[in-house]
From TrEMBL:
This is DNA-binding transcriptional regulator, MerR family. The keyword Nucleotide-binding does not apply. It comes from the Bacteria. Transmembrane segments: none annotated. Keywords: DNA-binding. Pfam families: MerR_1. Residues 4-73 form the HTH merR-type domain. It comes from Paenibacillus algorifonticola. One of its GO terms (molecular function) is DNA binding.
């Protein structure tokens, strides 16, 4: 028998509210959720994997509207959607990698300023290093 998880367990593990879980279910971001005889939801490993993907993609700034097609393709059992899912997720991975590069440039500039104490307009031997951080 597959492992079952309660709503409370899912809320704690993924730091989401009860309302958020219900909303994700309502807008089909989660696989169909089984219920016990008393109406309580029963989550499984597929729900955990979907929530992990939602959680990770939201952290990158992706909206639910943007992430919905990716999640829906992942939930689709039709193997013909695999290439579209890979294409969408791969494109988003490239976008995240570009964001990482931009954040690294910002980090490098801040580190340089902190190390040198250089203020705006001051010229020092470090000036070319700061400019080199932002070459395309």
């Amino acid at each position: 028998m597959p492992e079952a998880f309660t709503m409370k367990e899912m809320m704690e593990q993924f730091q989401v509210s009860e309302d958020a879980l219900r909303y994700y279910e309502k807008i089909d971001l989660l696989p169909p959720v089984a219920r016990k005889n008393n109406g309580h939801r029963i989550y499984n490993q597929s729900h955990k994997e979907a929530l992990l993907m939602i959680h990770c993609l939201k952290k990158t700034g992706m909206s639910l509207q943007e992430l919905k097609p990716i999640i829906k393709l992942q939930l689709d059992e039709n193997t013909s959607t695999n290439s579209e899912w890979r294409e969408r997720l791969g494109a988003y991975q490239k976008k995240i990698e570009l964001q990482q590069q931009a954040l690294q440039q910002i980090t490098d500039m801040i580190k340089m300023k902190l190390q040198t104490g250089q203020k705006f307009g001051e010229h020092s031997p470090v000036q070319p290093q700061i400019q080199s951080i932002f070459k395309p």
